[in-house]
Amino acid sequence: MTVTIHPRDAPPLGELATILKKSLELNFAAVTVHVVQCPDLRDHPFNLAAPGLSGNPCIADIGGQLNLFPTPNFDAKYSLLSLAEQMEMSPIGGSLIGAGAAPFQDLGHNAELAPNISWHSESETPDFNDPSSFKVINNTRFIEVDPNGLSSCQQISSTNCALMMNLYGSGGEPGPVLKVTAKGRVGEQNFTNCIRLGIRDAYGDSNPVSLGGVFLLKSGKAKFHVMPDFPKKLPFRDRDELENEWLTYHEFDAPVVCLTVMHSADPENLGLRMEHTHCFDPDGSRKGGHYHYDLDGEEVEYEAYLHPASTVYRIDQPGN
Q1: Residue 52 is part of a domain; what is its CATH number?
Q2: What's the number of domains the chain is made of?
Q3: What's this model's pTM, rounded to 2 decimal places?
Q4: Is the pLDDT of residue 148 over 90?
């Protein structure tokens, strides 16, 4: 796999807090943004595999949508632990969360994935290529639909993925983060685009900022899509067929936990997915998938914990 490394000059959290508050206030009736010590995100409802978002924060964009369209690239199979190694993370301990495609090679079919793992060493010489040298906590969910379009959200034992993946990596340590709350949407932007576009407006296209973390849809409902299994007839005719005839769309009520990765800009033309958010039901049911936007804006409420990345890794970019 080709890997390119792109440092990010992450602004101070306090500076970002001011920018986010200004942007969100244009779109929501009630907003707070503060720098706080991260709560233990292992607790309900977030259910992350690590307590925090601090410690060498980095983001990776792996594969991409071109691995799906016009014909799925069935060679695009990945391991989260191998990707952690490509992201120069430590086998002594770390955490990955994000959004991508489930491992069809393990499930036997296509689905959405909300990766959520941590690891720590049980060896003096841990090695990502030797799973016995460390312990993995895997709270990853996959979200699928049956032939009738009924969705389900389940934990998965595999630490693999496929096709496309956007990951926020860190040591999983406690530390300062941005806590964002927003209630009562009055504008047109969804929650994540309001954040990233506000940062873009502040820093411009030539000074990208990349963020990752988790947010909770606390009240209201939102629209999601869930990829079904690969169609029997391939290739896709066009993107309209993929988006409007193949993908399945769903509306789910809160609470829903959302793992997010976003970028304000892509000046290096890395083919980054500018925002990717996958969600799961904290109580284990049928809710989850790829977040689009909330519905019934007056009722909606969000609570987010976010952290900027200091490095972006572009891994296995299609066409390279």
Answers
A1: 3.30.1330.80
A2: 1
A3: 0.97
A4: no
